[in-house]
Every structure is written in C-alpha cells, then in structure tokens.
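Quick look at the format.
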Amino acid sequence: MFEQYKLPYSYDALEPVIDAETMETHYSKHHATYTATLNTLAEKAGVQDKTIEEILGNLDQIADATVRNGIRNNGGGYYNHNLYFKIMGPNAGGEPTGALKESMDRTFGSFEAFKDKIFALATGQFGSGWAWMSVTKDGQLVLSNSANQDNPISLGTENTPIFALDVWEHAYYLKYKNLRGDYVKNFFHVVNWDVVAELYEAALTK
C-alpha cells in the first residue's frame, strides 16, 4: 500500500512563501486523493507490490487503458507530490553546496543561471504541470518540464528526479492568483538544498 510522504513541518511552516491554507488543501485533499486512488487502481492492475518508480516506468505493461491512464495521473500525482513536499522546508533557501553545487555550476554555469532556466521552464509550461531537475543514468544533471502529472519517469527518460516544482494552480492560486512567476521566484526560499543534495548522491549510486 502506498502512503503519503509524512510532512516533517506544519502547514504554516512555509509562510509567507506558501500559505497554510494552500499547504493544508494541497496535502490533505489533493495529495491524499491521488494516494487513495493510486492504491485502488494499483490493486486493480495487480501492481500494488511494485515500487511507484517501477509502475510509472512500465505503464505500457498495464493492459487496461482506463486503469493505465488513471495510474499515470494518480500515480504521477502521488510520486510528484511526495518529492515536492520532501524538498521543501522552513528555514531553507540559500544555495546548494558540495558536490551538487559543483555539478550545477558545471552544467548550468551558476546557481543564478539554474534559477533562470527553471523559471523559464516553470512559467513556460502551458496549463498544469511541473518543472524538474533530474539525474541521468550517466550522472549528468538535466532540466525539463512536463504537463499534468507526468514526470521524467513516466515519460520514459530513465532519469531520476531530484527537484520538483509544482505549477498546478492549486499549488499557488490562493496566495498568488494568476502571478505564477511570483510563486516560482519565491519557491527558492523554501527549497531544502540539503535534501536535494541527498537525493543527488542517491541517484548517482543507482
């Protein structure tokens, strides 16, 4: 049975960047629904004993098209939000350090250049979706965006996401209204780069 990532911080801990009402609705309503629906559909498809990465990376093996599409959406929502909530935290922000920083500087030129690229991907994603930083099988960092609840795994890239930025309207609309760009800029103040660095190191050993 798939379980929601347990928040290690309170709903109001990310104020003023993300308001408590948005966090509570996002986590206890949206994410909870994705999780519950995934569990129902995974059992129906007979894949409940597989990891979410295995399921999303092999969606074509689910014969029933309706169940497959449901798992793509709800399984993606489950995986994506687990990562999104995990890489945020209070008293966070700043810049990455260590091996992650070195790799980001090497790949993107600088941390500011990385932020510019992510901003462009996040604000340029038409409609609902996500912006990502992932690690390729050969250990390189790559950026991308995706629609709806798709992610680099469900899209078949074989890349491992380590940074997820949710640009569905439910992630920011109560506070920022239609100003997605303001939300994206402020998001960097709540990114826990220590967690992202841990995910980076783990991805390198896969």
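Next, a different chain entirely:
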Amino acid sequence: MEIIKYTEEWRDKWDEFVLHSNNGTIFQMQRFFDYHLPGKFNFNHLVFLKNGNIAGVLPGAIYGRMFESPVGASYGSIVTGDLKYADAEEFVESLKEYALNNNIDELLLTPAPLIYEEYPNQDLEFALLWGKFSYRVHYISSAIKLDPERDLISRFSPTIRRNIRMSLKNEDIRVELNEKYDEFYPILIENKAKHNVKPTHSYDDLLRLKDLFPDEIKLFMVYYQDKPIAGSLMFYANKKVGICFYNMLRYEYAHLKPIQRVMYNVTNYSTEQGYSYVDIGVSQDTSAIDPMTPSKSLIEFKEKFDAKTILRNTFYSKLR
C-alpha cells in the first residue's frame, strides 16, 4: 500500500470515495474543508493507494512533528471501504511507515463513533491497538436510535412526553424547517456567552457551510407568537446519522420547553427521512480539569429522550 500527500487533482475522487465508504462523513470531505478561509490550517491530507486506486483517505494536518486528524472538523481518522482485517493492519503499518519516513513522531486520530458506519466493523480499531496505538481520551456522547416501527413520544420520559404534548397543543408555538440563520445566530451567541465561550462557527461560517451542503445541513427554528425562541442546527453527516451540532434557546422562554419540542421535531423528521440515529453530542463537564469528566446532569437529560451512550475515542501513537 502506498501513501501520497493529497493534491487537488484527487479532489473529486476523494469526495466520491468518502461518499461511498463504510465509515465516512461530510466532515472528512474536501468540500467540507472549503468552508475554512484559505490559510487557516496547514492541511496535510493523505491518500492510501493500492494498485493505483484509492483504498483509503486520511484528512489532517501536521503540527510540529505530530500528525493530527481531524483538523478543522469533528471527525477524522482513516476512511475506508468494506474492510478485511488484513487490510486494516496494512493501513496501520503503512501509516506508521509513512510517518517515520516523513519526520512525524506522533499520530493522533479521532474517528467517528461506530454508529456512523454503514456496516459496523472494528477491524481498524483493533489494528490500531495492536499496532501500539493507545486511547488518548474518551468522550461520552449520546445518540437516539431511530425506529419507524415505534411510537416516538412513548419512548421519552413521562415529563418530556407531557411537555411535548402541551407544546403541540399550544397554537402560539410552532417549529419551522427554514434557513433563517440571522434569527438563529443571535440566540447561539447569547447561549455561548453564558458559558464565557464563543460558537465554533462564525455566522459567515454557517452560511458557507449551508451553501456547500444544502441538503445535509438543516435548521429547525422554534417560534412563540412569531418570535424566534430556540433552534437546532442539524448536520446530516452521512446516510445513517444526523448530529445536533447546536441546540439553543432564549432562556426567558425556557418555561415553554422549546428544546424538548425541537428535539421531538428533529427526531421525527430524521426518522421519516430514513436515518438510523440522531447524535445529540458529547456530555463533558467543560469546567473540570480532567477533560473526560462527565456532565451527569446533561447525560441524564439526554437519557429522557431514550438516548444511549456512545464513545468518541481518540487514538494516539508515539513512534519515537
């Protein structure tokens, strides 16, 4: 297996490969990286070739003597097609050899969780561990398994069920699937400011992403008497999973339970569109010293929507 540095001539083949891969997402596509302003990151994406054809791709960048994946995205690591174990070992050994030959001493890889795979396959994960990678960090995340054969509301906790039903009966409350980012972004800014942080994406970032992925990025807005009071921005990462990237509300309307309502609309829409999961994100206590510290209250809240834990793992190898 040969590894070469990505160049623009591979762009279309790269994105086509990710779209038809077993474990790829929009976050690993070249089209996704286009939303970043030129020069923001010094990307060093890699292409795995076998018999002259793409066998795998690895987005990322080099910082000092470390190769990190992803950079400027949520998920990275090696994207593959249907995988046999022998191929998984070859990917890992080829990557380590490439690193050593290119003055790279450390490798840091964060793949998408297993639920994002078309056919769940942990060959690559085992091959990484067998190849002397270790787990660098784990994040606890939560996902709702979608099932068109089961009544959605009945799966939620009694309190959530009651609040959603009350919201559905309230004619002053409605949820729209629209593109009114000018209404959503001020709510996002206000919410993040309460935690003394800024959103991952600027307003212009979101507009660029929507232009790049018009079918994969969906904005759900909640209105009370025509006033925007909450919203959920969904990234449909591949044909299996939609991820709630931002859930935001105006706190003066918290008594109307707009997040609970929009979660119902998001999960219902995602089910109808044929997705398998809604990923509602990590639940870490960002104020803690240890980055793995779980936010138990946030986990408990997500469990009220019948969400179950999935792990977001990061693999690390020090080669020398």
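The chain has two domains: 2-132, 143-312.

See the schema section for token definitions.
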